Amino acid sequence: MAILDLANPTRFLALSARLLPWLFAACVVAFAAGLYMTFFVAPDDYQQGATVKIMYLHVPAAWLAMMCYSVMAVSSLGTLIWKHPLADVSAKAAAPIGAAFTLISLITGSLWGKPMWGTYWVWDARLTSVLVLFIMYLGLIALWRTIEDPIRAGKAAAVLTLVGAINLPIIKFSVDWWNTLHQPASVIRMDGPTIHPTILWPLLVMALAFTLLFFVMHLMAMRNEILRRRLRTMQLQAASARVGVATSQAAE
Amino acid sequence: MSGWMGALFLRELRLSLRVGGGALIGVLFFLAVITVIPFGVGPDLNLLALIGPAVLWIGALLATLLGLDRLFQADRDDGSLDLMLMSGRPLEVLVLVKCLAHWAGTGLPLVLAAPVLSIFLNLEPLAIGAVALTLLAGTPALTLIGAIGAALTVSLRRGGLLLAVLVVPFSIPVLIFGVSASGAAVTEPTPFMTPFLLLCALTLISAVVGPVAAAMALRFSSD
Fold first, then answer.
1. Which residues of B touch A128 (CB under 8 A)?
2. What is the pLDDT of residues B146-166, one digit of tens each?
3. Of A131, B4, B219, B223, which has fewest CB within 10 angstroms of its CB?
4. B185-220 confidence digits (pLDDT tens)
């Protein structure tokens, strides 16, 4: 079982060190291709003009915001059910990245909304549920920062992450359940995408680029978190050793 | 209700109502919030009647959030939470009983106070009844959802603020359907029952999800 082999942090560090340069290179290539297609291949909209290009950042960021939470939810299952030692590292590393993607999608959306809808923000179901997702990311980060012991913090955050996963289908289907200003799903549909290939392909390439960016940053953050925990263990050991010396001197 | 559940319910209720329990401070806070609102938005009676149900709901939400840290904190401080964990009773049911007692001590007074306070906000009799009914159906959901946050932050010394931040996102659906149901009772064409039944459904769902997640969090916080 590959995922069980990865339970050894040293082996994970070695594997991710070999994997990261390739992922990074693929990410750079995908971004180069995606940005080129966005600016030179994809046509301007006949009504919206060049502002339609914001979509190539907005939509992948929003997808990633939800994928990132899904990764955290699966990791939380790993923490609580299989007690996988890297699962809570993965969940903790994913939270700030997910918050950043959510913020990007909110900001790009409101920048697009000002000229198109005439307002930066409306309280419709899609926008509100994504804002709730953002607050949940921040709450989870705050929870991790308040509980000192990483194992206990990981378990507490895992419970909250799983409860919060209820929000994901609400975000996805909010445009179908309620009459929103935000447009309904147009790429992932039962009867095929409803947008033109010259727009669809740049969008998909950008989505691939964002996904690769997520994996690069997630792996790097996980490596940092593992090293941070090792450092914490070493500091604790050093401190207890010093206390041990001090008490033995006091006894003499 | 079998013996131990009744005994636990009565114990929790007595502790919260007696000196040092502080259950009724929530109602005072509710009164304070409602009193502050007209100073903020101006004493226009028509406007107050319009936003009254929403103001009452927000006040009830804030008052509930404020009292949530009492749910497990005192029991953890004096060690009785550990006894409950070791008692061998199903922890989910135990949490549910504690939540019900907590609601009877803090949530129910809010529901009873709401009709009195809605006179300040110039609500019509029909709207007063609607707000009280929706609060009766909805505030248990707030307590049950809040139990998750209370269980997660029980080991923290100053967990109250974090608790509120964690719980607020999950309480938004309750607020939405509570306010829309009490608003729908006054404005004629929109149906009252649809949002009200959804509100009841939310309470029932949180009666399952809340105790299960809170019990899980309590088990993890103890080891």
1. 172
2. 999 999 888 887 777 888 888
3. B223
4. 777 677 888 889 999 999 999 999 999 999 999 888
CA gap B80, B72 in Å, rounded: 10
Task: Please report residues of B whose CB lies closer than 8 A to that of A144.
Answer: none
User: Which among B165, B220, B221 is the nearest to A139, CB-wise?
Assistant: B165
Contacts of B172 in chain A (CB under 8 A): 128, 132
Interface subset of B 108-167, CB within 8 angstroms of A: 148, 152-153, 155-156, 159, 162, 165-166
Total domains, chain B: 1
Q: Residue B84: what pLDDT?
A: 87
| Cβ-Cβ contacts under 8 Å for A122 (sequence gap 6 or more) | A113, A181
SS3 B13: helix
Of A139, A142, A159, nearest to B217 by CB-CB distance is: A159
Quick: pLDDT tens for B98-118.
Answer: 999 999 988 999 999 999 998
What amino acid occupies position A161? T
pLDDT digits (tens, 9 = 90+) for B6-16: 888 998 888 88
Q: How far is CA B115 from CA A29, B100, B111, B120, in A?
A: 64, 22, 8, 9
Closest CA to B209 of B67, B95, B61, B72: B95
* Secondary structure class of A23 (helix, strand, coil): helix
